[in-house]
Model the fold of this input.
Amino acid sequence: MAFFDTHCHLQDPRFGNELDPVLARARQAGVTHMVCCGTREGDWSEVLALSRRHASVLPMLGLHPWFVREARPGWLDRLGALVKNELVGIGECGLDFALENPDRELQEAVCRSQLRLAREHNRPLSIHCRRAWERLAVLAREEGLPEAGAVVHAFSGSAEVARELQSLGLHLSFSCSLANPGNSRGAKAVTAVSDDRLLFETDAPDLLPRHLPGFKAGAPNEPANLHLVAEAAARLRGTDLHSTAAWAYKNSERIFGGLRP
Ligand SMILES: [Zn+2]
Done:
């Protein structure tokens, strides 16, 4: 079985000098590709460097809603220039209204500009969204989505939200939290996603499946754990693991395969 991690952050300093063994374990676990998402201008060059060093790492550059306030003026022009000259997707961008003091207007403006950039250059888009589903739907309707494909990463909404976002053309990516027995909302949502919209990710080093035996809190998550998501999705959807993994792989390849040089 082959797996495609559609969202992770291999540039994260928490991997330190451990990245080579992390990539080796991913390879052994059947993970052929990892979509590595930048989160702010300070990590874009590292994301690009990793993708040049490792053919399995596909680069995405973006400004995450957590970092909109600290962005330096001109960030969008510099992102635009990189997108023009490099084979990169856009993200991680999005809306996070679950933050303690979210600057909703600034988040929306920053997200909109990245939606436009993705559309303009027809690049895949990775979206972070927490407690902002209605506004995300409005933005997607008003700005449109890139034909290459747009993904809501680590989807945490309800089955109803999943259906609505799908109808707008979005793909939904699930993380290891799907394997958490307490995640009944995720369990329902994953059954609402159609085969051709389903994706899997680790968001490594985040979203470690701490609820599962063998995973100790504080350790970084890694792409080799991706099979846990596929297994949980197959069980919850009542489908065969191989065909579930094959669908997710095919969808990932369609959206992100174009980022391969
Ligand atoms: Zn992320």
Residues 7, 9, 37, 92, 203 surround zinc ion (CB under 6 Å).
